[in-house]
Amino acid sequence: MTKPETLAALDRAALSPAEARELFRDGLVTPTAGWAGGYAQANLIIVPKAQAFDVLLFAQRNPKSCPILGVLDAGETSGPLLAGGDIRTDVPRYTVYVNGEKTADPTDITDYWRDDLVTFIVGCSFTFEAALQEGGIRIAHIDQGTNVPMYRTSVRCEPAGEMSGPLVVSMRPVPASQVADAVRITSRYPAVHGAPVHVGNPAEIGIADLGRPDFGDPVDIPAGHLPVFWACGVTPQAAVMESKPTLAIGHAPGHMLITDARDSAYLVP
Amino acid sequence: MTKPETLAALDRAALSPAEARELFRDGLVTPTAGWAGGYAQANLIIVPKAQAFDVLLFAQRNPKSCPILGVLDAGETSGPLLAGGDIRTDVPRYTVYVNGEKTADPTDITDYWRDDLVTFIVGCSFTFEAALQEGGIRIAHIDQGTNVPMYRTSVRCEPAGEMSGPLVVSMRPVPASQVADAVRITSRYPAVHGAPVHVGNPAEIGIADLGRPDFGDPVDIPAGHLPVFWACGVTPQAAVMESKPTLAIGHAPGHMLITDARDSAYLVP
After folding, report:
1. ipTM strictly over 0.90?
2. What EC class is this (chains A, B) (predicted)?
3. A96 and A106 in contact (C-beta within 8 Å)?
4. A60/B68 CB distance under 8 A
């Protein structure tokens, strides 16, 4: 592709996934909301093979928060979801955990790579945001140009082997008259978190202050809107922080892998 | 429960899953179609922990044939899908594979049990048959009182580690005027094989003779009916026969685990 002279001139939504990945590989660092319209973005969790069964079973037991779109075998750095790409370089920013502690947030993980690392590519709710907008529901964090607010909850995931942790949710304010539409539309995308896990009462799931998200940025909740909560693909990273594998690598929240899969591939009847 | 004096007196559809499992535990051997109406029946595949990641990844990569409903950790013999039950005794008949060869079809696997065995509980198309009937579509093998016909195809599954093998399908003849209804209805049950994988041309998927199924019994295909093929939960057993783990245990085709999950739990909008 021809490189734009400035980032401002870039039509992010019109890029192909491969073009977007190439920009990130070449060093561009940015949240990815709104990029490569119509293509599915994804969360990452990368662990050594010794932990891979526990992670995959954790995902199977917690499908709303950890819907697996694809798995790269131990040592593999590319696959059909990122044809011609490289999982070590093609995400704008990563998060590295050593023994459960966040130790770095590099823009490239080539120096951390090992031949026993297994990559899990996990669905992201950005996929259903276009469908919500198409359905007439405004997305506050897109309107405000910020990262979606995410919260650790008091809801525990189903554990699997050594993996356990809290459910992490993303939140979007929805007018009371459109809550049913939001449920109906997102329930048709089970592979990217599906229907909400909770509507309207943050205290009940252990969220004390919506104004202080654990990840991302706060958004205003206008009068007449309810906070609606969807399971979030940051959940496996929260489990990694509790379960302390020797090494784990995720994406930085909001800085997703842009895959070659169409959003529409994950729509069910 | 009070034991019926004779099997003929038994109202199979009215039994609870726990009552049905108790009968099988006590030695009754029978195919399970029509038992415990409204409750999901399931395929089994049980392997040593050393093979468990490959089996789970194979299932993740082949979700139409291997939709996982639940996993019992290494050595576990019960779980929420069979509350109070025992996976070693509660299925009417099992199939045991040693190095990929079928060596026995016992009615109890207690003698084979090891503390490193992991049990995968896999969705079964019996779940959507009631919905098809409710939609006015007759099910030939139920009308004829036989086991559903199943075929190995020439379609290869996506491999995972050491697991690879052919897609196995079940077949139901459907009147041409109802094929669209059959697709629409079953597509709403993705956790139990979902929409058909093929309609109308068995030769194209390597089935030479519909009259000679690889598992189950043949059914007539009346004039004006098309053979419709759904992915089948016997697929992991076919992979086990190719991939030759030291030990694997499945259910005998048609002799399913009756779970405590409602069929309706697997319905998507």
Report:
1. no
2. lyase
3. yes
4. yes
Minimum distance, in Å, between the CA of residue B187 and any CA atom of chain A: 7
CA angle A146, A151, A152 (to 5 degrees): 155
pLDDT digits (tens, 9 = 90+) for B42-54: 999 999 999 999 9
Pair of tokens at residue A130? 């276009």
pLDDT confidence of residue A6: 62
List CB contacts (< 8 A) between B268 and chain A.
187-188, 190, 268-269
Interface A:B, Cβ pairs < 8 A: 40
Of A53, A188, A269, the CB nearest to B53: A53
The yes-or-no verdict on residue B101 having pLDDT over 70 is: yes
Distance CA A39, CA A27 (A): 21
Q: Fill in the amino acid letter for A198.
A: H
Cβ–Cβ < 8 Å for A34, A13: yes
Supply the DSSP symbol for A91: S
Which residues of chain A are within 8 Å of residue B184 when distances are taken between CB atoms? 269
pLDDT in tens, B17-39: 999 999 999 999 998 988 999 99
d(CA B42, CA B125): 9
CA A229 to CA A214: how far, in whole Å? 14
- CA–CA separation, A43 and A47 (whole Å): 14
List, in order of start, the domains of chain B with CATH numbers. 12-124+239-263 (3.40.1640.10), 126-235 (3.30.2040.10)
* Burial label, B27 (beta-carbon count in 10 A; 0-12, 13-18, 19+): exposed
- Per-residue confidence at B96, pLDDT binned at 50, 70, 90? very high
pLDDT band at residue B167 using 50, 70 and 90 as cut-offs: very high
Q: Which pair of tokens denotes residue B3? A: 């034991």
CA distance A18 to B85: 51
Question: Which residues of chain A are within 8 Å of residue B60 when distances are taken between CB atoms?
Answer: 56, 60, 68, 71
